[in-house]
Amino acid sequence: MQVIKRDGRVVEFNKERIIDAVTKSMAQTVGGVDIDLANKIANSVEKQLEDKNQVSVYEIQDVVEKKLMGSSRKEVAQSYI
Question: What three-state secondary structure class fits 2?
Answer without folding.
Answer: strand
